[in-house]
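Q: Could you fold this chain for me?
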Amino acid sequence: MLEEVLSGVVLIGTGIVTGIFVAVLVSVGPAMSAMGRAEYLRAHALLGRGYHPMMPILVNIVTVSGFVLGWLAESPGRVLFPVAAVLLIGVQAVSHLGNVPINRSLSGLAEDGPWQDPRPLWRAWHRLRTALAVLALAAVTVAVLAAP
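A: Sure. Below is the predicted structure, expressed as structure tokens.
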């Protein structure tokens, strides 16, 4: 019973994380790239409130659940759930080392004056964490579908 519940948590949670990242990649990001600086800074501040702290908490819950499933599941889940968890650690690392510092640097930025546009670098980091999340979702999906 615990294995089935955790499998659902990991599958749904990884799907939510991946879905949010893909939505940002294909819609939110391009929209924000089309904005002027002042408009972008206001939108960034508003959007950030909705993602924090929900995303890190969700990723942590799914990651821990994936490692637990590594002990509970039979093959191929015994390998694939921990692989997905490691990929989600990669998502967290990219977020904390790449995207979050950029986000923090924007909070005190004036709406005018010289600046180096952070959007291209932020998008590059976001593409990486989205790819890691997609790979994690693929691993979890295979593990759930192949469960005995």
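A (continued): The chain is about 85% helix and 0% strand.
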